[in-house]
């Protein structure tokens, strides 16, 4: 645990001493703030679920930005070689870096609670739906970040890693579209179950289904495990 916390602390220092975290969170807050203002001023309805439904698009864009350098940069500048020969295990590196990106994201997300405060002052929002919506948002974004970290393990180039991460996230978000195209019922059901959009949408209706929670948690664990395996393969090759 101490080794993971060491990596976490190291990465947080890097985040806050480089413009990546500030640019990513500023972009996220600007986009989400605009969406909140546009929706509330247009509908005059205290419904946070619609806002969260649109905010996830901003999350799809900023998650690769937050994670694209985490593993690719270590390999490029040579610090990865030092880490792999240290007492720190590869899975410590992966988990520590992942938690750092998660902390940065959650730090920015807490600022969006002001939207709920505004709705509470000028309306009567459904707090149950808001809570389930935020839980779904956090689970979905946590999964995006794990995918971005996995993509970062594939390439030494940050931009390439970022594009790979976004492509995977984009595909898994809209994969449900393919389920309506394929004719095979079994394949169609599989594609529908893999759709992040379908699982996220349930939270926005106020439903916290164990199946959806398990889906996202399983995807996070799978992504982190694969990222560790990729690092192990690099170690064997070198």
Describe this structure in words.
The protein is built from 13 helices and no strands. Helix 1 packs across helix 6 and helix 2 packs across helix 6. About 35% of the residues are buried. It has helices at about 1-15, 20-45, 50-65, 70-75, 80-85, 90-110, 115-120, 125-150, 160-175, 175-180, 185-195, 195-205, 210-235. The protein has about 240 residues and is mainly α. The model has no long low-confidence stretch (mean pLDDT about 85). It has one domain.
Computed structural class: mainly alpha
List the quaternary state of the chains.
single chain
Written as H for each helix and E for each strand, in order along the chain, the element string is HHHHHHHHHHHHH
Strand content: under 5%
Taking all residues together, what is the mean pLDDT? 84
Helicity level, as a percent range?
A: over 70%
Number of domains: 1
**Distance between the first and last residues' Cα:** 27 Å
| Main sheet: strands, sense, barrel | none
How many β-strand stretches? Answer: 0
General form: globular
**Number of separate helices:** 13
Radius of gyration: 19 Å
- The residue ranges in which pLDDT falls below 50 over 5 or more consecutive positions are none
């Amino acid at each position: 645990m101490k080794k993971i916390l060491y990596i976490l602390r190291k990465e947080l220092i890097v985040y806050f001493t480089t413009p990546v975290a500030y640019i990513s969170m500023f972009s996220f807050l600007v986009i989400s703030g605009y969406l909140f203002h546009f929706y509330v001023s247009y509908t005059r309805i205290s419904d946070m679920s619609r806002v969260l439904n649109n905010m996830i698009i901003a999350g799809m864009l900023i998650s690769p930005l937050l994670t694209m350098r985490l593993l690719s940069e270590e390999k490029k500048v040579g610090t990865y070689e030092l880490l792999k020969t240290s007492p720190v295990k590869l899975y410590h590196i992966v988990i520590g870096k992942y938690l750092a990106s998660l902390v940065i994201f959650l730090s920015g997300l807490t600022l969006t609670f002001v939207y709920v405060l505004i709705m509470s002052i000028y309306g009567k929002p459904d707090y149950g739906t808001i809570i389930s919506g935020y839980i779904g948002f956090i689970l979905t974004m946590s999964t995006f970040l794990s995918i971005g970290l996995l993509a970062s393990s594939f390439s030494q180039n940050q931009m390439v890693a970022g594009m790979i991460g976004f492509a995977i996230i984009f595909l898994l978000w809209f994969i449900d579209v393919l389920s309506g195209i394929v004719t095979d019922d079994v394949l169609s059901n599989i594609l529908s179950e893999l759709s992040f959009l379908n699982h996220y949408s349930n939270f926005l209706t106020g439903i916290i289904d164990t199946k959806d929670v398990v889906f996202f948690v399983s995807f996070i664990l799978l992504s982190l495990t694969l990222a560790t395996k990729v690092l192990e393969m690099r170690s064997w090759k070198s």
